[in-house]
Specification:
about 220 residues; alpha/beta; 6-stranded mixed β-sheet; 6 strands; about 50% helix; disordered N terminus; disordered C terminus
Length: about 220
Amino acid sequence: MLNKTLIIKLAPVLFAVLLIGCAGADAQIQKAPAGIGADAANAQAADAAIKPLVAYYSRTGNSRKVASALAKHLGAEVAEIQSEKDRGIFTIMGEQWFWGDDRQKPFEKNLQDYSPIIVVAPVYFMQLSAPGRFFIEEVIPDGSQVYVFTTSGGPLAGFSRKGIEELVTESGLIAKGVHGFQAGKTQEEVDSLVCEFLKKHQITGAPGECAPAAEQEPAGDTK
């Protein structure tokens, strides 16, 4: 009789415990898929954010042409490296002979969002120009994958290529390649040369065939 009375008294308590347990289980079952979906969405967003970027410095317009062709054929974004120096021949001589530095406006892109980073800049006196050097050493985040494309009056010398590769690696970056293009060509000629280059050298995002001929102009002037 006592056992029956005890059971009757405890029944509401047991019933309440069961309800709480079921509610908790339902909450856990509903929460898990939401978490998995959020992780998948975050992963997709991260993958979508990583894309090539072409960053260029051009004093006379030659590097700008190469940057335009690379951006077009790679489907990449492009942005100008803006030096605050008024760079004439004597300034260039001092920078190249004495490893001079540069002053640059803040870069307009968040470089953490891009990979690889493709730097286009001229070579002066067999060395990468000061704006290109400064951008590699001081602006690009450590560990970034970097290609360097140069413009010069003739073929890129082997020791110049090696020096640029060492500059990239010593700056804490991953050197993916250094390549040179000759200055003094039209935009159409540069487009064709870059197209043929990308067919032979598979840079991340490079298509199998060249992009249409419509010109894509980088922002900024040709200074």
